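Example 3.
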Amino acid sequence: MDEKGFDILILGAGPAGVSAALTAHARGRSAAVISADPMASPLARAGRIENYPGLPGRSGRELLAAMVGDLERLDIPLIVGRATAVMAFNGRIMVSVEQDVYQAGALILAAGAQQNARPLPGEERLLGRGVSYCATCDGMLYRGKRVAVLGLGSGSEADRAFLEGIGCQVLYFTGTQAKNAEIQGQDKVSGIAVDGAVHPVEGVFVLRDTVAASALLPGLEMAEGHIAVGPDMATSVPGAFAAGDCTGRPYQIARAVGQGNIAALAADRYLKERET
Ligand SMILES: Cc1cc2nc3c(=O)[nH]c(=O)nc-3n(C[C@H](O)[C@H](O)[C@H](O)COP(=O)(O)OP(=O)(O)OC[C@H]3O[C@@H](n4cnc5c(N)ncnc54)[C@H](O)[C@@H]3O)c2cc1C
């Protein structure tokens, strides 16, 4: 495998993703974890954790740092960036992270609860028709044009600066303004409504730490806002598995860790079947 090709790619460096990576590694699989800032997991906001066995009284931040440290200890690559698209093609799964593409035989989605990824009005309908998730990938298309940047995650200031640097006229919205924005247009983006005012724009960059799983991977079956999985954590897309909060409630570390383990074992089995 080259530096961008792996047996198993794991999306998300929270408890589910780290657990999946450790199991994949233990099975002798080359694995890499793709994640936005790993310390952006909701676990980092938890005070004292009292229901995770063997490690009483740790703060969420401490527990998360120790988990992410396991990746480093085992030399499991951690690719820090936002995955903006996943494609399953010809038995391989490709994941776009900003301008890079990584590929693997199997994917484990461990992207966390989906409520922060809930699409804005107009977002899914106009995706690829003026709506973009990646400023550095698509920014040049909007050179000299008026665009909106919705900063809904970490690092959107840098994307705003990038777009201004290449000559876009940028309207920048964050916080509740960004959360409540409505993207307008028929066949392509024509404007954005914020606080009751409509601003004409030709592009809208929706910048979250996560992207709704259904938008990330076309054909992915969802159930009540979560990724639908079978008992072995397989999703509706062959070769794609899911684990943790993205598959449903209760949102708990122990459940996420257990499902990460099951998903990695199932991904290993899936690859073995294809290898024989
Ligand atoms: C305040 C608070 C207190 C809590 N207390 C407890 C507790 O006491 N006990 C307990 O068991 N649980 C607790 N939880 C819940 C616990 O944090 C979650 O259940 C757990 O973190 C879920 O793990 P996960 O791996 O499924 O997802 P997450 O921890 O959410 O990790 C997902 C990761 O994927 C990344 N990601 C998502 N999409 C993308 C993308 N497109 N590209 C790149 N990266 C992406 C995210 O940035 C994130 O780092 C608490 C949660 C909160 C918010």
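The chain has two domains: 5-114+211-275, 119-207. The two ends are 18 Å apart (CA to CA).
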